[in-house]
Amino acid sequence: xxxxxxxxxxxxxxxxxxxxxxxxxxxxxxxxxxxxxxxxxxxxxxxxxxxxxxxxxxxxxxxxxxxxxxxxxxxxxxxxxxxxxxxxxxxxxxxxxxxxxxxxxxxxxxxxxxxxxxxxxxxxxxxxxxxxxxxxxxxxxxxxxxxxxxxxxxxxxxxxxxxxxxxxxxxxxxxxxxxxxxxxxxxxxxxxxxxxxxxxxxxxxxxxxxxxxxxxxxxxxxxxxxxxxxxxxxxxxxxxxxxxxxxxxxxxxxxxxxxxxxxxxxxxxxxxxxxxxxxxxxxxxxxxxxxxxxxxxxxxxxxxxxxxxxxxxxxxxxxxxxxxxxxxxxxxx
Length: 333
Description:
The chain folds into two domains: 249 residues, CorA soluble domain-like (Beta Polymerase, domain 2, 2-Layer Sandwich), CATH 3.30.460; 56 residues, Magnesium transport protein CorA, transmembrane region (Methane Monooxygenase Hydroxylase, Chain G, domain 1), CATH 1.20.58. It has a seven-stranded mixed sheet with strand order 2-1-3-7-6-5-4, with helices on both faces. The protein is built from seven helices and seven strands; from the N terminus they run βββααββββααααα. By secondary structure, the chain is an alpha+beta fold.
């Protein structure tokens, strides 16, 4: 499936889904407001359209602090981690794998959690398929058993999709290298592909670097996380670091390919200019002779001689052969 599940069990347009998870990997959708009190039997997960006008009113109905409401409903976010209102706030980014979307147009997901509740939010038109994956696992009974594991699973699924995009960029660069050697595509097509690759790597890396730092701070803090959760998030942080390095390498490869392409373009231009120079060198003295003997003035030699044209043509041919032979001897041709 390529679309995020949009089943709405709440009267508020801001709510995408609200689950009561049983602590064993399963859960059911509910209506109303999450229970903010600790319950050893499970935990609640609320997923919101954070930029919906009703989202702020809904969160106020949950008696959330104004700072937390502001953080969850922020329009623009960058990856970061912060201890806030007795829980952990972490802003993450995932690649946009929705049909027709550009992967580098990364989707923001805001997550706040404690031992009892998980609140997540994203913009209305910015669907995140990793959230959809988690919903399916909950429906199948193989979902997270506590909030920390939920965050670890979400980070893993975000990293998996980032891995797919990084591999796609690597494959595209390899394809460009092959086609540049075989000269299958035109220079303009190759330039456009390299430009697209450089744009993708720059946009994705822009968010992955701070996301790596946010995740590193999260597992170092280890608040509301089990030892297994910390290990999982640390592993995913190492993966993100590897992807950042891969993107740096891809950017360097793109720059090298672009430089090679520019050198080839310059070489082609120089070859054409050189050929034109050779042609001009051969025809310059011939043009001079035709100019001189083409003057319509009295006293030109050969005007009365019917063989003059043939003699002049033969002389010009001999001169051209001598010039070409000289260039050949000098290895200019």
